[in-house]
Amino acid sequence: MRKVFILISLIFTVSSAGAQCAMCKAVIENGNETMAEGVNNGITYLMVFPYLLVGFLIYAIYRYRQVQKN
Question: How far is 60 from 39, CA to CA, in rounded Å?
Fold first, then answer.
């Protein structure tokens, strides 16, 4: 379980996560820089929720199995 937690932590701390979608980046590069940063931040924000949902599901399964053992 500890290895899974470490792996998930590393996924969230990858420095290349700021690159985002290549198509969005290409479209936004023609605009101003603050708009590009806003789009990239929005993509990152939307990307977090699937990971949170999967994490919650894994935690719920873990807790369910712990209750079943006792």
Answer: 33
